[in-house]
Amino acid sequence: MQRRTLGLALAALLLAGPAFAGSKTYQVTGPVVDVTADSITVQKGKENWEIAKDASTKTSGEVKKGDKVTVMYRMTAASIEAKGAAKPAAKKK
Question: Going from the N-terminus, what domains does the chain have, and what CATH number goes with each?
Answer without folding.
Answer: 24-75 (2.40.50)
